[in-house]
């Protein structure tokens, strides 16, 4: 994404229709646009473009499309927005995010090393998101990871399960 386009998109942050027009996308193509542009931004180490793309994701009106984009970004290594993506997932509370969160928990946090955070801190992001989603499946993931081999994950999931119960 070139700087001029990024600047125009940032200036129209609150005007979704204008952003779509400038980027040449529609509500049905926004998911592919954001995910492919994020891959380009990652390859080019263009962190400003990554932030612009996340900002565009935040204003996607269709909650299923927004969840799909966020879920893709959650499991995409190379950008430095995973905590922010997880917070957006938490706010959205989409049950479709549960398998993606499970995938990150199962795969370990190797691609999140850039955060400099301990495993229990990273696990906290996901425990909050799962608790907010609150479905039976989400709670089952929390329960499952209470017994994880990674002590940081197990400790945080056990803590969150206790908080849910009270």
Quick summary of this structure?
It contains ten helices and no strands. The chain has 166 residues and is an all-alpha fold.
What's the structural blueprint in terms of helices and strands?
Elements: H1 3-11, H2 16-23, H3 30-43, H4 47-58, H5 63-74, H6 82-92, H7 98-107, H8 119-133, H9 136-145, H10 151-165
Helix pairs in contact: 1-2, 1-4, 3-4, 3-5, 5-6, 6-8, 8-9, 8-10, 9-10
Number of strands: 0
Count of helix runs: 10
Query: How do the helices and strands follow one another from N- to C-terminus?
Result: HHHHHHHHHH
Helix content: 55-70%
How much strand?
under 5%
Overall geometry comes to elongated
Number of domains: 2
| Structure class | mainly alpha
**CA(first)-CA(last) distance:** 47 Å
Low-confidence stretches: none
Main sheet makeup: none
Query: Whole-number average pLDDT?
Result: 93
Round the Cα radius of gyration to an integer and report it.
17 Å
Kindly describe this structure.
The radius of gyration is 17 Å and the shape is elongated. The chain has 166 residues and is mostly helical. It folds into two domains: 1-61, no CATH class; 79-166, no CATH class. The chain has helices at 3-11, 16-23, 30-43, 47-58, 63-74, 82-92, 98-107, 119-133, 136-145, 151-165.
């Amino acid at each position: 994404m070139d700087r001029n386009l990024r600047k125009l998109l940032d200036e129209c942050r609150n005007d979704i229709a204008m952003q779509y027009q400038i980027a040449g996308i529609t509500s049905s193509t926004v998911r592919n646009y954001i995910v492919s542009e994020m891959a380009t931004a990652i390859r080019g180490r263009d962190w400003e473009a990554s932030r612009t793309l996340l900002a565009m994701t935040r204003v996607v009106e269709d909650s299923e499309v927004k969840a799909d984009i966020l879920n893709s970004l959650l499991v995409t290594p190379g950008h430095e927005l995973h905590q922010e993506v997880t917070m957006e997932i938490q706010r959205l509370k989409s049950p479709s995010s549960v398998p993606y969160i499970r995938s990150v928990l199962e795969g370990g946090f190797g691609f999140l090393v850039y955060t400099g955070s301990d495993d229990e801190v990273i696990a906290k992001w996901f425990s909050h998101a799962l608790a907010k989603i609150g479905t039976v499946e989400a709670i089952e993931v929390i329960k499952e990871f209470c017994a994880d081999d990674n002590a940081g994950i197990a400790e945080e999931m056990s803590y969150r399960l206790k908080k849910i119960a009270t």
